[in-house]
Write a structure and sequence with these properties.
Helix content is 29%, strand content 27%. With 297 residues, it is α+β, with helices and mostly antiparallel strands. It has one domain. The longest helix is centred in the middle third of the chain and has 21 residues.
Length: 297
């Protein structure tokens, strides 16, 4: 049975990993009981104090920030995020412990109004080369800090910006040193009056087709409310962000969210759970999610 590799790229220290491991359910049965207590929602849901709205159809389910934290940190083994997630979208036909599950994390970067006048001028092939070079340069620092090196393989789906809806999406294929399967980062950004809604798919690379298929649905179910929309921008009172569309794709928002330059928050691939650099925790996950689901000794 295929399970997941869930990696966090920022803020890892050994003490945090050890304390986190102690909070995890000790058996698969305990994890399943915890998953059953998650409170899924559908229909209309307000986000970030009412600045944006979700309309979740029958094919998806939403988890609030508290339940999202349980999934990310307790069930999937991530250390505490530096970002305040606004929630999580998941397909309604699978749960967080299913081998083929995936999710879309939702957060908000209130950095100001992002001008889109550079959108039609960007050479994304050139931008990709610069991003690949920056990732390679940053690998020296990552390796020194005990993290595996990363290769930005290329666009899994090239960036596309819809000027009418002010929605941007793209996908990157990543390869982490020592992992058997490449990882998918599928990103959606929705521009608003005072910031950007950040939607990031947590998935394996072989789930690209499924996520591409449902991207139009995801784009349609998330919107800013009146007064917070891109068209509501007032240059007399509103702040303008220090970056544009190209920086959003290259990692401008990620940097603002406190991550390493050009890196990403949660990464999901195949085969097994792991928290980078912590062998004991990784071994615990392998026992918990082993194929026969037996209680670890």
């Amino acid at each position: 049975m295929r399970t997941k590799l869930c990696v966090v790229l920022v803020g890892l220290v050994f003490a945090a990993a050890v304390s986190l491991a102690e909070e995890h359910p000790k058996t698969r049965a305990e994890a399943e009981q915890l998953a059953k207590r998650l409170k899924y929602q559908q229909g209309e849901i307000n986000l970030q104090g009412g600045i944006a709205k979700l309309n979740v159809p029958s094919g998806f389910r939403y988890l609030n920030p508290d339940d999202t934290k349980i999934v990310l940190e307790t069930l999937w083994g991530n250390p505490p995020s530096t970002t305040k997630e606004l929630g999580m979208l998941m397909p309604s036909d699978r749960g967080p412990l299913d081998s083929d599950s995936w999710a879309v994390l939702i957060s908000y970067a209130g950095d100001g109004y992002v001008k889109d006048d550079d959108a039609g001028k960007i050479n994304y092939d050139d931008l990709l080369k610069k991003m690949q070079s920056a990732v390679q340069d940053n690998n020296k620092k990552r390796i020194k800090q005990g993290y595996p090196s990363i290769e930005l393989v290329g666009w899994a789906a090239p960036p596309h910006y819809d000027a009418a809806s002010h929605k941007l999406y793209w996908a990157k294929e990543l390869r982490f040193d020592g992992t058997p399967a490449n990882t998918l980062n599928y990103d959606i950004r929705i521009l608003g009056r005072r910031g950007v809604l950040v939607l990031s798919a947590v998935a394996a690379i072989d789930q690209l087709g499924e996520i591409e298929k449902v991207t139009p649905q995801i784009l349609g179910m998330v919107n800013f409310n009146e007064g917070h929309r891109y068209a509501d921008f007032d240059p007399k009172v509103d702040k303008v962000a220090t970056y544009g569309i190209a920086a959003l794709v290259a990692g401008g928002v990620a940097a603002k969210l406190g991550l390493f330059k050009l890196l990403w928050v949660f990464v999901l691939a195949a085969k097994k759970f792991i928290i980078i650099a912590f062998v004991a925790v990784a071994a615990w996950f392998r026992k918990l999610f082993q194929k026969d689901k037996k209680t670890p000794a």
